[in-house]
Design a protein that fits this description.
2% strand; 9 helices; mainly alpha; 241 residues; two-stranded antiparallel ribbon
Length: 241
């Protein structure tokens, strides 16, 4: 069942056009960066092994890919919140104050490349087939759009297994109790395991970050390199030095 999460939010919310730019411009940059990264790893590691993992049925590879990729993204995502310089890249994504499907695209190019590498380089090294990685990528993309969307999804007890908009909106909440919580991209098991789950029944009332991230695409790309170093804690709960 789908219901609007923030009823007063319009389709053309603030900075909507800026995120359209991200959707088209970042896609090209990230693809080039990721292809170069995969090529470098392939040249260093050699061809992806075709052993036990590749011999598994496609459906089982996809299930296993979810576990492996989620672990990689969880670790990288948590690092973006824990390390101040990495947070300066990730704060661009957290500057969104009105979440919708388009908000999925407002991610600094360096942030996207690192998170994609954290998900797919382990799959490549372990020998998952290209078909399994492609299926995982398609499902992962759909879920990324869903968890950022301005909807409520009623899936009953499965909310304790799968990341939902409610789960991910709390990750974006500008509430002290929500800082450094809900890192998982698809499955919630690692947040439960490491004590980073925050899933109250109520929806967050305030999204975004207290960091003064500029509002336009080009300045957001430059933000990690030109921002002022301030000694106070930012909304990721880390101290910027």
């Amino acid at each position: 069942m789908l219901l609007p999460n923030r009823r007063g939010q319009g389709f053309f919310r603030r900075h909507w056009f800026n995120d359209i730019i991200y959707m088209f411009a970042n896609g090209i940059v990230v693809r080039i960066g990721f292809i170069l990264l995969i090529t470098a790893v392939a040249n260093w590691w050699g061809p992806a092994p075709h052993g036990f993992v590749a011999s598994l049925p496609l459906w089982l590879q996809v299930v296993a890919a979810y576990v492996v990729a989620d672990a990689g993204v969880y670790a990288a995502h948590r690092s973006f919140h824990a390390i101040p310089w990495l947070w300066s890249f990730h704060s661009v994504h957290h500057s969104i104050e009105e979440l919708d499907w388009l908000a999925t695209h407002r991610v600094h190019a360096a942030d996207q490349i690192i998170l994609a590498a954290a998900a797919y380089l382990p799959l490549f090294v372990l020998g998952f087939t290209a078909e399994a990685m492609a299926v995982h990528a398609m499902i992962y993309t759909v879920q990324s759009y869903l968890v950022h969307s301005n909807v409520r999804v009623a899936i009953g007890p499965l909310r304790h297994v799968f990341a939902t908009p409610h789960f991910h909106h709390w990750h974006h909440a500008n509430h002290v109790e929500a800082y450094d919580r809900n890192f998982a991209p698809s499955l919630t098991w690692l947040d439960r395991l490491f004590g980073t789950l925050h899933l109250p029944d109520a929806a967050p009332t305030r999204l975004g970050t207290d960091d003064e991230v500029p509002p336009d695409y080009l300045r957001q790309l430059a933000w990690p390199f030109v921002r002022r170093q301030r000694p106070e804690a930012n909304s990721a709960g880390v101290t910027v030095r």
